[in-house]
Amino acid sequence: VMAMLQNIPAVINRFLPSSRQELARFTSLQGLECIAPLVKTVEETPQPVTADLSGEIPSWINGNFLRNGPGKFEFGNQKYNHWFDGMALLHQFKIENGTVKYKSKFLQSDTFKINSEHDRIVVSEFGTLAMPDPCKNVFQRFVSWFEMQKPTDNGSVHYVKYMGDYYVSTETNYMHKVDPETLASMEKVDWSKFVAVNGATAHPHYDPNGTSYNMGNSYGRQGTRYNIIRVPPQKTNDSDTLQGAQIICSIPPQDGAKPSYYHSFGMTENYVVFIEQPIKLNLLKIITAKMRGECISDGIKWEPDHETVIHVASKQTGQLIPVKYYAKPLAMFHQINAFEDQGCIVLDLCFSDEGGVLTNYQIQNLRKSGQALDEVYNTTARTFPRRFVLPLTVDSSTATGQNLNTLPYSSATAVKRDDGKVFVTHEDLHLDDLVEAGGLEFPQINYAKYNTKKYRYFYGCGFRHLVGDSLLKMDIDTKEMKEKNTFLLVLDAKSFTELGRAAVPVKMPYGFHGVFASSKQ
After folding, report:
1. Which coenzymes or cofactors are required (predicted)?
2. Cβ distance 508 to 91 under 8 Å?
């Protein structure tokens, strides 16, 4: 390697890519507030209650703010192990004429019903393995260890929208259609009845005409595949759910036995961008987890010896473009935005340089206090907003060793290596003040106006704790943190800080994601 480097002119040495893992950013905070109240079981509030407001909500905000997340962490004397495992509790904040009414209901999933009926955990979740039925005899309990685990339909991750209907989703093949007004669970929908996938993300993308795009894995005769799914914008019949959905592109993984875990993906006007990161699903371990007495999460590992691979597919043709992009090992859960400019894709993501975060969000960690809680936080790598630039026109005639990013406003690099691969390095979209704020996650843009378009501002949560403790406004042009509004962790006031800086004193667990169903844009 050194001999090869010596033959390259020094003038371009600064563009040379390296797949070496960067040192992840950690912190050394002390005296963190205990957040155990955010991860304890709460009662649902099916009848609306009027919230007391501090501050004023703008008069133009009218509609339902819908939020989703875990709200029940045990059945009988059996407890869930991971934050992601808790039963989905649906929240609604009805905003009307400057007032707010709150209500919540547990999703009536099959998982919730059967667990409630037996007063124990019957269906395994991400970080919790269901134990055999104690009412069975010894032989029956032994045999049950070798039965395939059934996927959960506990839609605790996010609200999504298809063909005008609202659903709550997890990352298995099941979703539940819900009524955004009553929060009633209306219909269980199985992705695999419409397209050949074993699951789908809870973060679809939408074209302006309502066409939806999502991604899901399949494990079949053709081997493991990452699949891009397109769902039409409108129903043919009132009873339609995912009718007309189709797979437009299937991407083979770098390692079929260890495909990557992914939580979201990027989309521009003409392309879908998939990030194949080194958080790996060990399929053999996952398939045999039950018989070995382990849960699904035990089969998911951070493997930083692998590079990150970025795939780009045309939304029109479903074909992958010939070039693939390679980056250092990174751990990404949420993309910010992506757009096309001057023959390049600009891809903005929130990611960290270390991928062991899933383990740190076990419930026992979130309920710690004092020095033990500080240690969990300080061993969790910080996540930051960063930008890649992907040149679309790269072929055999493209020069090696040169930065192919010609965009004057970005310092990100894209260099074709001697092996023909294009290695990309990121540009930070922040200054040191964001490091002090604990990094940023859960990014949001004005989606209806700026998705797939060049933009300037985005919002996110600052993380000077294991959960978001502030709302941040970021200026991409200057990289400045324009605003920082800190809120009490014991209140779920993130979204109301954004919608008028008003804290709502309602007891509820810390949720994952939400949507605002407004009567006005």
Report:
1. Fe(2+)
2. yes
